[in-house]
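Quick log. Single chain, no ligands specified.
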Amino acid sequence: MAAEAASGVPGVAALQPALADRLALAASRAHQALTAGTAPHREAAGIRCEHTPGDGWRVEVRCILHACQRVVDVARQVRNDVRTAVSVYLIQQGTADHVTVVVTVTRTL
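-> predicted structure:
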């Protein structure tokens, strides 16, 4: 849901995971598949979520933007849309944790 919200913002060209995240995710998927015997949960590229005790959730979004738009405006909209999407999901799950979203623009096209 966070990846869909970020990708849906006009001006976002793509989401970009870091190399370390890709390697960790690949290793995690392989480990889960071997131990569980089932297909592991797929995480979205470019989105990193972590639960922070006392603070709620921290969501990091790494994205590539189109150069024809103001970076600050697109990043602000990504932050707002992702925070809304995650908050709605948490409420549906019976939790109202605080959501902090950090947007990193890795490059423009």
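The beta strands are 12-15, 47-52, 56-65, 99-108.
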